[in-house]
Amino acid sequence: MNLDGFMRRNGLPGAFAEFAKRCFLPFAEWLEARLAEKRGATCVLGINGAQGTGKSTLAQLLGEYLESEHGRKVVVLSIDDIYLTRKERQALSQSVHPLLSTRGVPGTHDVALGISVIEQLRSLRQDETVSVPRFDKSRDDRHPPGDWATVTGPVDLVIFEGWCVGSQATTEAELRAPINALETSEDADGRWRTYVNGKLATEYAGLFEVLDGLLFLRAPDFDAVFRWRLEQEQKLRQSAGKNATAIMDDEQLARFIQHYERITRNNIEVLPSVANAVIELDNDHQTISLSYPNPCQGQTRFVAR
Predict the structure, then answer these.
(1) Most buried of the four, 34, 104, 116, 270, by CB within 10 Å?
(2) Phi/psi at 40 (nearest 5 deg)?
């Protein structure tokens, strides 16, 4: 794999090469060993990480490495790609709660579409094809089906990445008190967060059952997540061009990210004990360590120094 070329295409700093060689590429080799054990069966790896943790970049790195070094067919699917359309979310906001017009939280995705696409990718035979949905964040809407990507089988690995992939529902008692200004002013009765949590406990739990494993990118805290998400939006403003209609300014982003705060905080606390592999990040967005199970040596832990 041409790591330098990958870094240039993604605008990554020079320090990324060290982390990749010490942590990410050995993990890719661990994945390759698991794929070999499956003997042709398609595996599905979930990657959970809050906004700005680098999960999309990591998913792309793993995919390109496995394809170039081992000849694997890898498909990366984001949970963002199965958002309900803008029209569908607007209808949901009128019938259930106004906050559901904003994409992101459980309840704003087409879960049935996600399960269907992953199962189709799993069952693809030689030369069979399936269309994979894509979402345009700059327009806040799903691309029309005619613009979806076409995948030809068979597929060795599906990487399903997203900020709430594998997230766990909480108890009703934990939902009662609002945790930020958005919940206090716009969900005083808790109806929105109860609906979201209910979806996470039912439909989304069914979606996450398709995962063969989960990798969690753990941010140090929610304040770091906000800073990183702000950096993402600034880059999107620069690259989206004149046709972008859904780019947020800083004030809009501050409100937007509060939609995600409750589940993100819960992920930071809960998912390290749920995920099969965990990457720890520091406040500067750098990888501290990556740990995952090794069948021969117990727990493997790479520390980036």
Answers:
(1) 104
(2) 95, -15
Strand ranges, E, within the chain: 43-49, 74-78, 129-132, 135-136, 141-142, 149-152, 157-162, 213-218, 277-281, 287-294, 298-303
Q: CB-based contacts of 269: which residues, under 8 Å, 6+ apart? A: none
What is the Cα–Cα distance from 191 to 179, expressed in whole angstroms? Answer: 14
Q: Which residues pair with 218 in a beta bridge?
A: 280
Q: Identify the CATH number of the domain in which residue 44 sits.
A: 3.40.50.300
Distance CA 257, CA 262 (A): 10
Q: What pLDDT, on a 0 to 100 scale, did the predictor assign at position 4?
A: 95
Query: Which of 182-191, 233-242, 287-296 has maximum average pLDDT?
Result: 182-191
> Which of 300, 284, 291, 292 lies closest to 15, judged by CA?
284
Number of folded domains that form the chain:
1
| Closest by CA position to 257, among listed 165, 179, 200, 199 | 179
- Confidence at residue 303, expressed as pLDDT on a 0 to 100 scale: 62
- pLDDT tens-digit map of 235-278: 766 766 655 555 677 888 889 899 999 999 999 999 999 999 99
Distance separating alpha carbons of residues 121 and 118, to the nearest angstrom: 5
Quote the pLDDT of residue 246: 57
- The pTM of the full predicted model, rounded to 2 decimals, is 0.91
Name all contacts of 235-238 with Cβ < 8 Å and 24+ positions apart: 236/137, 236/138
- CA–CA gap between residue 61 and residue 77 (Å, rounded): 14
